[in-house]
Amino acid sequence: MTHEYVSYCLESGLERIDLGARSGCVDLAMAGDRRAQNGDAPSRRPPLPVPDLVGEKVRLRAWTADDAPVLAAAWTDPEIVSWTGVPADRSLEAAERWIALEVERRRDRLALDLVAVPTRPGEDRVLGEVGLGPIQWDRRRAVVGYWTAAGERGRGIATEAVGLLSDWALDALALDELVAETSVGNPPSAAVLRAVGFELAVERDNRQAWRLRA
Ligand SMILES: CC(C)(COP(=O)(O)OP(=O)(O)OC[C@H]1O[C@@H](n2cnc3c(N)ncnc32)[C@H](O)[C@@H]1OP(=O)(O)O)[C@@H](O)C(=O)NCCC(=O)NCCS
Q1: Are 179 and 144 in contact (CB under 8 A)?
Q2: What value does the mean pLDDT take over residues 167-193?
Q3: pLDDT tens, 94-115?
């Protein structure tokens, strides 16, 4: 993560951590041992489920190894590079590793990253990504992140995907709050959050922090 979330982190007195391709902010105290201090040790709690979420345009599913080339390509898309955190290593092997580690992040209840694919039967191409992470169980709060593949933008994909996952997270995971940060130079991203019902919480230094409360 380069700059996203940073002002929200500062505003909240939180520190950012890396979670593969996406990161966010967590309590300083959690940086040392996230699992132990997240109030939700993996040994005591089941892995995060992959929810069965289907909208008019998109269905959300887990990442599979076959998606690695699309993920590696997304990491080189100029918009995605500008506005989200992409890893320094954007190779196919790195994308394969990121996908393999998604299972561990879910097992450890740190994050949940899903692929948006068309709802239409028989279609499975990657339209975009939507995820929660890090999840701060002690604060019942999660950071939301998303991108839509270059050729698929402007059709409501992100709005539906973020809406589906947000509603589910507040309900099924019993979170109190979802947060996201946009740059003022990225109006489509703010439009997505606004359409889903997020409210602008803080605006500072060209960054906007958004929150959606249960
Ligand atoms: C931001 C992003 C995810 C939006 O994806 P998308 O599938 O095109 O989003 P949607 O079609 O659901 O909605 C786009 C919204 O942006 C609006 N929009 C598009 N271009 C715009 C512009 N230049 N100015 C203002 N609004 C704009 C659209 O009108 C739409 O809003 P509406 O539903 O109120 O009409 C996509 O552009 C993207 O992947 N960007 C790079 C990664 C990124 O920025 N991720 C978010 C990090 S915070």
Answers
A1: yes
A2: 97
A3: 999 999 999 999 999 999 999 9
Measured by CA distance, the residue closest to atom 28 of ligand 1 is: 188
State how many domains the chain has.
Answer: 1
For the Cβ of 144 lying below 6 angstroms from any atom of ligand 1, the answer is: no
C-alpha of residue 188 to centroid of ligand 1, in Å: 3
Task: Name the closest-CA residue to atom 34, ligand 1.
Answer: 191
Range of the domain at 87: 6-213
Name the residue with tokens 């939507």. Answer: 130
Residue 148 in any domain: the answer is yes
Here the CATH number for the domain that contains residue 155 is 3.40.630.30
Is 1 domain-assigned?
no
Length of the chain: 214
Rounded distance from Cα 70 to ligand 1 centre (Å): 20
49 against 43, higher pLDDT: 49
Q: Which atom of ligand 1 is nearest to the CA of 127?
A: 7
The confidence score (pLDDT) of residue 38 equals 53
The answer to whether 124 touches 150, Cβ cutoff 8 Å, is no
Nearest CA to ligand 1 atom 18: 188
Query: Is this prediction's pTM over 0.90?
Result: no
Strands 22-26 and 177-183: unpaired
